[in-house]
């Protein structure tokens, strides 16, 4: 997957591999708890090593990179805004990532208020003062602004 000649800072979609041939018996789906186990343990170690602010910045940047790659490889970026958002909502639901709702749009200032229900990061967690949806935040920003 990675070799010494390759620039490690440049994730590409192909890094995900051939998932269907790689998991012929188990398939493409995993339980949400496995995703959260991975994310929350990475988050815990990064907070211990780097502090909360740097960790949150890294997680948002990783989410944004994933969102840009997702947009580039899974969505048609040539659609007008309304068609694009409709497509994004459909694909997020089909891929069991979450249910995106656009609550408010200000295209002139490029400001949006949105919600993602049943998301992978925090749906079903008890209420808390701690924010754990940084990856989702970055992911949506990356999808909506793939050139950032």
Describe this entry's structure for a reader:
The protein has helices at residues 19-22, 32-50, 52-74, 81-94, 134-144; strands spanning 99-106, 111-117. The protein starts with 18 loop residues before the first helix and ends with a helix. The protein contains 5 helices and 2 strands, in the order ααααββα. The longest helix is centred in the middle third of the chain and has 23 residues, at 52-74. The chain is mainly α and 148 residues long. A hairpin with a 4-residue loop joins strand 1 (99-106) and strand 2 (111-117). Strands 1-2 form a two-stranded antiparallel sheet.
Radius of gyration: 16 Å
The order of strands across the largest sheet is 1-2
Strand content: 5-15%
Q: What is the approximate shape? A: globular
Poorly predicted segments: none
Q: Biggest β-sheet, characterized? A: 2 strands, antiparallel
Number of strands: 2
Count of alpha/pi helices: 5
Order of helices and strands: HHHHEEH
Mean pLDDT score: 90
Structural class: mainly alpha
- Indicate the percent of residues in helices: 40-55%
Distance, first to last CA: 26 Å
